[in-house]
Amino acid sequence: MNLLIGANFKMNKTNTELQEYFGTFTREYPNTPGVDVMIAPATIGLSRASELIQNSSVHLGAQNMFSEVSGAYTGETSPLMLQDIKCEYVILGHSERRTIFGETDELVNKKVNTALAHGIRPVLCIGENLTEKEAGLTKDILRVQLEKGLSGIADTTGIDIAYEPVWAIGTGKSATPEYAEEIHMFIRELLGQAKSRIIYGGSVTEVTAHELISKREVNGFLIGSAALDPHRLMKIIHETIK
């Protein structure tokens, strides 16, 4: 399978900044065999980003999507809207959506089902917070999030999983490669199939990428702040494949 390198811009980059970013990235990034690069700008930048990555190898991703296709859902984004701009991926269940906006496993599951029904590949995020980790509950938390997130889905091979330890996101503290390997192998066992990619997200940088990717069942990364600089993203990709 190809590795998946995902860049989550979160609430960063205006359309003007996106033009500069993609101008640099699409000009300087060599198409790398065996690697799928997915970039997820903020919703307001998706349409512009779709135009900017034409004729490049970059895949467009969204940071969120609603579970209904249309209706009175102020502020939400429909899967039909994502289809219309050729958005191929959608990040669902990110810890910031769960903690700040109160998204439940049940809502995330509805979104995953809706994405699949519209040909958009979900990147389902799961992860434990520091309190849960210190209490030894990591695997219990992940099992529940994964089982509920994938509930009712007979074929899960069209879904990628992002393990994002909440205690590592934006803190500069990355999980050790050995810890990431243990957790990714546990997730693979829960999935019961080998086709979905299990990617790691949690303060990934050009310094940590090479050792992390060398571990079993680490099939790529979901990168936050380090991906806001196109040259840093390219360095991480280089470290991933060297």
From TrEMBL:
GO terms for cellular component: cytosol. It catalyses: D-glyceraldehyde 3-phosphate = dihydroxyacetone phosphate. GO terms for molecular function: triose-phosphate isomerase activity. The keyword NADP does not apply. InterPro entries: Aldolase_TIM, TIM_sf, TrioseP_Isoase_bac/euk, Triosephosphate_isomerase, Triosephosphate_isomerase_AS. Pathway: Carbohydrate biosynthesis; gluconeogenesis; Carbohydrate degradation; glycolysis; D-glyceraldehyde 3-phosphate from glycerone phosphate: step 1/1. NCBIfam families: tim. Involved in the gluconeogenesis. Catalyzes stereospecifically the conversion of dihydroxyacetone phosphate (DHAP) to D-glyceraldehyde-3-phosphate (G3P). Belongs to the triosephosphate isomerase family. This is Triosephosphate isomerase. It comes from uncultured bacterium.
